[in-house]
UniProtKB/TrEMBL annotation:
Top EC category: lyase
Organism listed in the record: Pollutimonas thiosulfatoxidans
Keyword Membrane included in the entry's annotation: no
A Pfam family assignment: ECH_1
Name of this protein: Enoyl-CoA hydratase
SUPFAM superfamilies: ClpP/crotonase
Keywords: Lyase
EC number(s) from the headed UniProt entry: 4.2.1.17
PROSITE patterns cross-referenced by the UniProt entry: ENOYL_COA_HYDRATASE (PS00166)
Family: Belongs to the enoyl-CoA hydratase/isomerase family.
InterPro entries listed in its UniProt record: ClpP/crotonase-like_dom_sf, Enoyl-CoA_hyd/isom_CS, Enoyl-CoA_hydra/iso, Enoyl-CoA_hydra_C
Length: 283
C-alpha cells in the first residue's frame, strides 16, 4: 500500500467563495484580487463589534488562501471609514468593565496584526472621511491611494482617549515621522490629502471617480507578480524595524536565497534569455 504524499495543501483553501456578513467581498474573475468594501455609506462606513471581528478573522484566514494574491480595501459612498460606530460601539464601551474593555481593545489591535501578518499586499483606496479605526486600517495597509477630498484623522483624543490605539504610536511615526505623528495623535486634527502625499502616507492621489480603479490596477500589478516573493518582502518590511542593520542584512540574505529556489526566479531568467516577459505563478 502506497503511503500518501503530504503537501500541506489540505491546510489551505480558496477564498473566492467567502461569504462576508458585515461588508462586501468581491473577487476578480481569476480569483487573484479581492476587494473589501465597507458598506454603511449612510453613516460613512463605521465599524461595529461584528465587523471588527470579521475583518480580523478574514485577514487571519487569508494566510491560508490558495487563490487571493492581493487585497483592495475601500469604503462605499464617497467615504472610507468614520471609525467605530458611536452608537453601536462607543456607547456600549462606557458600560463595560475593564476586562471587557481590554477584550475589545485587543480585538481591534488583532485586526492590525492580522493585516500585517497576511502575505497578500493590501491596497487602501481612501476617499472622504478616514478617521479613528478607519485611519488605522488605512495605515495598516501596505499601500494607500487617496483623493483630494481625503481627510485622515487619528482622532482618539477627541473622545477623551490616548492617541495610542491599534498601534498608532509605532506605525504612524514610521510612516510620516515622529514630529508629524505626534501632532496628529495629540491634536486629533485631520491630515489633508496634500499633507498625506507630501509626508509619505499616500502613494498617489486620484480623482474620486478614479481612485478605486487605480487601487485595482495596483493590486492587479502585484497579483500578477512573484507573489511568494511579495510575501517575503511584506514580512521583512514589518520585521526589520526590530532588527539591527547586521541582523536585517542577514535576514535578507536568507530570504533571497529562499526566493532563488522558486520557479518564478527560474521563469524570470528563462524569459530574459528568450527576450520575453515573464509570467509569474507565485511558486
Amino acid at each position: 500500500m502506497e503511503q500518501a504524499v503530504h503537501t500541506m495543501a489540505h491546510h489551505k483553501r480558496p477564498y473566492a467563495d467567502y461569504q462576508a456578513k458585515n461588508f462586501l467581498w468581491q473577487v476578480s474573475e481569476d480569483g487573484k484580487v479581492a476587494t473589501i468594501t465597507l458598506n454603511r455609506p449612510e453613516r460613512k462606513n463605521p465599524l461595529t463589534f461584528d465587523s471588527y471581528a470579521e475583518l480580523r478573522d478574514l485577514f487571519r484566514g487569508l494566510v491560508y488562501a490558495t487563490d487571493i494574491k492581493a487585497v483592495v480595501i475601500t469604503g462605499a459612498g464617497g467615504n472610507f471609514c468614520s471609525g467605530g460606530d458611536v452608537h453601536e460601539i462607543i456607547g456600549p464601551l462606557t458600560e463595560m468593565t475593564m476586562p471587557q474593555l481590554l477584550d475589545f481593545t485587543r480585538m481591534t489591535g488583532d485586526l492590525v496584526k492580522a493585516m500585517r501578518a497576511c502575505p497578500q499586499p493590501i491596497v487602501a483606496a481612501v476617499d472622504g472621511i478616514c478617521a479613528g479605526a478607519g485611519a488605522m486600517i488605512a495605515l495598516a495597509s501596505d499601500l494607500r491611494v487617496g483623493t483630494a477630498q481625503a481627510r485622515t484623522a487619528f482622532l482618539f483624543t477627541r473622545v477623551g482617549l490616548a492617541g495610542a490605539d491599534m498601534g498608532a504610536c509605532t506605525l504612524l511615526p514610521r510612516m510620516i515621522g515622529q514630529g508629524r505623528a505626534s501632532e496628529l495623535l495629540y491634536t486629533g486634527r485631520a491630515m489633508t490629502a496634500d499633507e498625506g502625499m507630501a509626508w509619505g502616507f499616500f502613494n498617489a492621489l486620484h480623482p474620486s471617480d478614479a481612485v478605486l480603479t487605480a487601487a485595482d490596477k495596483l493590486a492587479r500589478q502585484l497579483a500578477d507578480g512573484p507573489t511568494f516573493a511579495h510575501g517575503i518582502t511584506k514580512k521583512l518590511l514589518h520585521q526589520e524595524w526590530n532588527m539591527g542593520v547586521d541582523e536585517a542584512i542577514e535576514a535578507e540574505a536568507e530570504a533571497q536565497a529562499i526566493c532563488m529556489q522558486t520557479q518564478d526566479f527560474r521563469r524570470a531568467y528563462d524569459a530574459f534569455v528568450a527576450k520575453q516577459k515573464p509570467v509569474f505563478q507565485g511558486d
